């Protein structure tokens, strides 16, 4: 019986040796092509695009994803700028160097999309820059600039909101400049078509204007522009504001509501300020 078992097992062992699979040569070109097709399909699924998406579209979307992967370095440099701007004794040379270090990174391919949102001014290198982008009404007697916000919307509209603190028993004053914006790789143009001051008066003669800024740097949390007509490095540093409505409420000024929603704002009416013309 033992001999019979050995006889039966011998052919099976031989058969396994004979039919053992052999490793086929690797076709690198085919593997690369397969990975490329998988990558393209992944990009299509992420964006919800049609199946006939062009290679140019795929390249553009892939560059966006690559830019997002570089946000770690960008965020680190942006944090450095904010840290320097928020110091009590600011070092202008250090801020210049930090902004230029951030600006040296490649610009976002979809910079217009990335710039959307609400931004809060955290530091300005000069008062001229603040007046260049806003109304300059914070320079009148008994007034100081409390806050300034820049809002860039998806439809191309924009708003510059100034909150001015008045010395004495007076409420904060809000000036609102609205219009359209154009965002380019290195340029931000704001075209103000309507300006309403804190008393509700519309300013058109000099305030309704076009403002061209140099877009120096942009990250998820930071927007740096310069008043190009004043000084090449006249930085205005904005930090992203995630709750704009709450920020205005804390500053005790009314929200930015459209004209047809004014009745819902509680009937707020700004009192006369010291600099208003007497009737």
From TrEMBL:
| Protein name in the entry | Plastid lipid-associated protein/fibrillin conserved domain-containing protein
Species in which this protein is naturally found:
Pelagomonas calceolata
Top-level division of the source organism's lineage: Eukaryota
Which range is the signal sequence, renumbered to this chain?
A: 1-15
Which keywords does UniProt give here? Signal
Is-annotated flag, keyword Signal? yes
Chain segments carrying region Disordered:
249-279
């Amino acid at each position: 019986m033992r001999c019979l078992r050995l006889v039966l097992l011998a052919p099976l062992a031989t058969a396994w040796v004979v039919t053992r699979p052999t490793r086929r040569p690797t076709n690198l070109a085919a593997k690369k092509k397969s990975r490329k097709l998988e990558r393209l399909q992944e990009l299509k699924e992420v964006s919800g695009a049609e199946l006939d998406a062009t290679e140019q579209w795929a390249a553009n979307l892939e560059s966006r994803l690559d830019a997002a992967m570089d946000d770690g370095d960008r965020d680190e440099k942006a944090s450095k700028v904010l840290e320097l701007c928020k110091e009590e004794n600011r070092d202008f040379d250090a801020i210049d160097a930090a902004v230029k270090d951030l600006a040296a990174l490649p610009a976002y391919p979809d910079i217009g999309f990335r710039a959307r949102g609400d931004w809060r001014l955290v530091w300005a290198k000069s008062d001229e820059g603040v007046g260049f982008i806003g109304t300059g009404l914070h320079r009148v007697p008994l007034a100081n600039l409390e806050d300034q916000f820049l809002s860039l919307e998806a439809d191309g509209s924009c708003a510059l909101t100034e909150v001015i603190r008045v010395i004495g028993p007076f409420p904060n004053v809000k000036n609102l400049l609205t219009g359209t914006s154009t965002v380019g790789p290195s340029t931000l143009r704001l075209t103000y078509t309507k300006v309403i001051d804190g008393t509700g008066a519309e300013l058109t003669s000099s305030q309704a204007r076009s403002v061209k800024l140099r877009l120096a740097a942009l990250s998820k949390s930071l927007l740096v522009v310069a008043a190009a007509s004043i000084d090449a490095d006249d930085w205005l540093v904005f930090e992203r504001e995630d709750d704009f409505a709450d920020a205005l409420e804390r500053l005790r000024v009314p929200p930015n509501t459209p004209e047809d929603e004014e009745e819902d704002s509680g009937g707020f009416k700004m009192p006369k300020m010291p600099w208003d013309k007497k009737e």
